[in-house]
Amino acid sequence: MLRRYGLLWLISILSVLFLAPGFVHSGGPSVYYTDKVAVLAYHHIDDDQRGDVTITSKRFREQLRDLRNRGYHFITLREFRSFMKGGSIPPNSVLVTFDDGYESFYTKAFPILKEMRVPAVNFVITEDLDHPDRTLIPTLSREQIRRMISEMKEIEVECHSDSLHGRTPDGGPLLTTKLPLAEGGFESDEQFERRIVSDTRRSLDKLSTLNDGPIDAYAYPFGAYNLRSIELLRQAGIQYAFTTQSGMAERGNDPFQIPRINAGSPYVRMNSLNNMIIHKLYRVSP
Question: Would you tell me how many other CB atoms lie within 10 Å of the CB of residue 118?
């Protein structure tokens, strides 16, 4: 048994050495992986404030530039859908995603994405589309979304719920937890299911007039989901759902449990992101 794990460890190390940053195959750039996608997760960009899911414009630009210089290829959500259905994608494919629909995507991220021609998708909380200034952190307006998509077709918006990005009084995620009733007790199964499906369809309807492509993808609020919520999202019209579980996306993944890599932490430096992707590729399970 120890000999087997020792061999696996050796294979893993050799794989990293020969596919690691800076190694160039004869005749072309490095190929770190094929038929996989590194789905990167971001939230907020702010050049003054700091937070666990907040990075600066400078850091964001550095990350994208470093990946491109190393031979990574940025793909659209449309290409990702095609890949999940069996279509081909470039080696070293990367999909850039943002959660929450903060205005900083428009003011900070979009200028960089447009300049570098990097596609991206933002999973938007649609409840505040008409009142983007009433939240603690300002969010995207309809006009800002329209403007971005008109200037760059590779920008897409998808669902992060309409009003389910919150918690019950007991702290449970709204997507997976029954609400308490004023008269006592909790929602019935039917009431709970109606609430989730209605919220999702409401989000889909609001975004359908803004997006340049299909609206069928969802990022779970707080990363919380279960088999029941998956089925309800499916009923509402969702076909792909993105988690906060860390890993590489592959065709064999459940389309409702797509993993991502958290690139939007202030601790992820320019070259750290490449190292994180390599680690996800060649990590050997015990």
Answer: 21
Residue with tokens 């109606």: 194
Condensed to tens digits (0 to 9), the pLDDT of residues 159-172 reads 999 999 999 999 99
Pairing mode, strands 37-42 and 44-45: unpaired
- Give me the mean pLDDT over the 259-275 stretch: 94
69 phi and psi angles, rounded to 5 deg: -65, -25
**Structure tokens belonging to residue 99:** 């959660």
Separation of alpha carbons 228 and 217, rounded Å: 17
Number of C-beta neighbours around residue 248 at 10 A: 17
Q: What is the DSSP letter of 64?
A: H
Angle at the Cα of 135 (from 129 to 140), degrees rounded to 5?
35
* pLDDT confidence band for 28 (50 / 70 / 90): low
For residue 191, the Cα-to-chain-centroid distance in whole angstroms is 29
User: What's the token pair of residue 132?
Assistant: 């983007």
Q: Kindly report the number of other CB atoms within 10 A of residue 177's CB atom.
A: 19
Residue 245 phi/psi, 5-degree rounding, is -70, 140
Report in angstroms the alpha-carbon separations of 36 from 18, 101, 132, 198. 18, 26, 36, 33
